[in-house]
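Assess this today:

___
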Amino acid sequence: MQQLAPHPAVLSEGSIPAIRPYLLNWLRRYHPGDEPRLVFNHTHLLDDLGLSGTGKGALIADLEDFYEIQIPAKKVNSLHTVLDLETCLQQSLTRFAA
Protein backbone atom coordinates (compact mmCIF):
# COMPACT_ATOMS: atom_id res chain seq x y z
CA MET A 1 0.00 0.00 0.00
CA GLN A 2 1.28 3.47 -0.85
CA GLN A 3 2.31 5.51 2.20
CA LEU A 4 -0.35 8.20 2.56
CA ALA A 5 0.13 9.35 6.16
CA PRO A 6 2.33 8.69 9.16
CA HIS A 7 1.66 5.44 10.95
CA PRO A 8 -0.16 6.02 14.27
CA ALA A 9 2.97 5.01 16.19
CA VAL A 10 4.64 8.29 15.17
CA LEU A 11 1.84 10.40 16.61
CA SER A 12 2.35 11.98 20.00
CA GLU A 13 -0.10 11.06 22.71
CA GLY A 14 -3.28 13.11 22.51
CA SER A 15 -2.56 14.43 19.03
CA ILE A 16 -5.04 14.37 16.19
CA PRO A 17 -4.03 11.86 13.52
CA ALA A 18 -2.56 13.27 10.35
CA ILE A 19 -5.83 12.82 8.48
CA ARG A 20 -5.51 15.92 6.31
CA PRO A 21 -2.36 14.88 4.41
CA TYR A 22 -3.85 11.39 4.07
CA LEU A 23 -7.14 12.82 2.83
CA LEU A 24 -5.48 15.11 0.28
CA ASN A 25 -3.30 12.28 -1.04
CA TRP A 26 -6.32 9.98 -1.16
CA LEU A 27 -8.29 12.57 -3.14
CA ARG A 28 -5.38 13.03 -5.57
CA ARG A 29 -5.21 9.28 -6.10
CA TYR A 30 -8.93 8.60 -6.54
CA HIS A 31 -10.03 11.92 -8.02
CA PRO A 32 -7.18 12.87 -10.37
CA GLY A 33 -7.52 16.13 -12.26
CA ASP A 34 -9.51 17.84 -9.51
CA GLU A 35 -8.24 21.22 -8.38
CA PRO A 36 -6.18 21.22 -5.16
CA ARG A 37 -8.39 21.60 -2.14
CA LEU A 38 -8.04 23.35 1.19
CA VAL A 39 -9.25 21.19 4.03
CA PHE A 40 -10.56 22.75 7.23
CA ASN A 41 -12.33 21.40 10.32
CA HIS A 42 -15.72 22.32 8.85
CA THR A 43 -14.98 20.89 5.37
CA HIS A 44 -17.91 18.62 4.54
CA LEU A 45 -16.92 15.24 3.12
CA LEU A 46 -19.78 15.04 0.63
CA ASP A 47 -20.68 18.65 -0.16
CA ASP A 48 -17.24 20.31 -0.10
CA LEU A 49 -15.02 17.44 -1.23
CA GLY A 50 -17.51 16.03 -3.71
CA LEU A 51 -17.42 12.50 -2.35
CA SER A 52 -20.39 10.27 -3.01
CA GLY A 53 -21.71 8.02 -0.27
CA THR A 54 -19.70 5.21 -1.85
CA GLY A 55 -16.60 7.41 -1.98
CA LYS A 56 -16.98 8.28 1.69
CA GLY A 57 -17.29 4.58 2.47
CA ALA A 58 -14.15 3.80 0.46
CA LEU A 59 -12.22 6.55 2.26
CA ILE A 60 -13.28 5.25 5.66
CA ALA A 61 -12.46 1.65 4.69
CA ASP A 62 -8.99 2.76 3.56
CA LEU A 63 -8.49 4.64 6.86
CA GLU A 64 -9.58 1.57 8.81
CA ASP A 65 -7.07 -0.55 6.90
CA PHE A 66 -4.26 1.98 7.26
CA TYR A 67 -4.75 2.64 10.98
CA GLU A 68 -5.78 -0.97 11.68
CA ILE A 69 -9.02 0.02 13.42
CA GLN A 70 -12.75 -0.63 13.02
CA ILE A 71 -15.28 2.19 12.87
CA PRO A 72 -18.80 0.94 13.62
CA ALA A 73 -21.31 1.45 10.81
CA LYS A 74 -23.60 3.52 13.04
CA LYS A 75 -20.66 5.86 13.73
CA VAL A 76 -19.84 6.16 10.01
CA ASN A 77 -23.29 7.66 9.41
CA SER A 78 -22.45 10.53 11.80
CA LEU A 79 -19.19 11.46 10.06
CA HIS A 80 -19.93 14.55 7.98
CA THR A 81 -16.91 16.85 8.30
CA VAL A 82 -13.14 16.51 8.43
CA LEU A 83 -13.27 17.29 12.17
CA ASP A 84 -15.85 14.51 12.69
CA LEU A 85 -13.48 12.11 10.93
CA GLU A 86 -10.43 13.29 12.91
CA THR A 87 -12.28 13.02 16.21
CA CYS A 88 -13.57 9.54 15.41
CA LEU A 89 -10.12 8.41 14.35
CA GLN A 90 -8.54 9.80 17.52
CA GLN A 91 -11.14 8.05 19.68
CA SER A 92 -10.63 4.76 17.85
CA LEU A 93 -6.86 4.97 18.15
CA THR A 94 -7.10 5.87 21.84
CA ARG A 95 -9.35 2.85 22.51
CA PHE A 96 -6.96 0.64 20.55
CA ALA A 97 -3.94 1.87 22.54
CA ALA A 98 -5.68 1.40 25.90
In short: The mean pLDDT is 77. Residues 41 and 82 are 5 Å apart (CA to CA). The first helix runs from residue 19 to 30.
